[in-house]
Amino acid sequence: MKTVVTGGAGFIGSHIVDAYINEGHEVVVIDNLSKGKLENLNPKAQFYKVDVRDKESVDKIFDKEKPDVVNHHAAMIEVAKSVREPSETIEVNVVGTMNLLSAAVINNTKRFIFASTGGAIYGSPEEVRVDESYEPAPSSPYGLSKLLGEEEIRHYSRENNLEYVIFRYANIYGERQDSKGEAGVVAIFSELMREGEPPTIFGDGNKTRDYVYVGDVVEANVLALQNGTNNIFNIGRGVEVSDSQVFETVAKAVNFNEKPKFEPVRSGEVLRISLDAKRAKEELGWEPKINFEEGVAKVASK
Ligand code: NAD
């Protein structure tokens, strides 16, 4: 099978590229390297340094490569930046997705797999643990851009012969996550603590997220090559982990003994959430295997 993986030089995308290549698939990567790194890139992948906003180049790649599957992970991912500068997030995440969809249907691509967000699409839900039937109410332009991306995909699927699988990820962490961005708290805390610097917690430490190890996310993306057709899946563990717990777990893994710094919660941030992934278990055959302590122990000291 030939797969285009966008964002394949980034954190999650590069792990998916490795898994697809290990499974014997041919992989084409589209990434503009705005955040991705060449060192993440699997040498067996065909690489195009192209921006997904550049429709002409995207069309040329699809015309040449004729992929069976598109796995779309390229995006602007920073929530706070999307509040400050919404138009760039909308251009990359909405117009970029449209360019890929249009090239996919012209070239008879069979399936479109999409990295959406569970953390930012549901807003601050009244129930803390949400399933896919909970009505999205994004609290940031980033969350909005992902909801619009989902709707574009469903539209193109209805109007064409294109199957889709949409993943609403919880907070993903693991090897190769950028420690310099504003997301990626495990990577950020780990690096600071290894350097002896106390990390900053935004809020009082009680804000919660649902954390999933990247290896588990890769498994969902492998399953999605064949299963889960035309469905939306939460990818989470259904377990709330507070910022203070993240701090303590990483501190224990790297032997850090100081206290954190505290600053006010940033605009657009959800206060508490965890994702119910029962549908992924029943219809995709996916279950997370690594708990937070195990996952942090794998990555924090590197
Ligand atoms: P990342 O920044 O490491 O990866 C994104 C990749 O996309 C990077 O390699 C970047 O260079 C590339 N990219 C960005 N803009 C581009 C453009 N205009 N054209 C081409 N390439 C571009 O981020 P990640 O954490 O690996 O996230 C991957 C996907 O998963 C994103 O779509 C993100 O919204 C989604 N997601 C991530 C999380 C998480 O916790 N990390 C949670 C929910 C959803």
TrEMBL record:
Q: Where in the numbering of this chain does the NAD-dependent epimerase/dehydratase domain appear?
A: 4-236
Under the heading PANTHER family, the entry gives: DTDP-D-GLUCOSE 4,6-DEHYDRATASE-RELATED
Sequence similarity: Belongs to the NAD(P)-dependent epimerase/dehydratase family.
Protein name stated in the entry? UDP-glucose 4-epimerase
From which source organism is this entry? Candidatus Colwellbacteria bacterium CG10_big_fil_rev_8_21_14_0_10_42_22
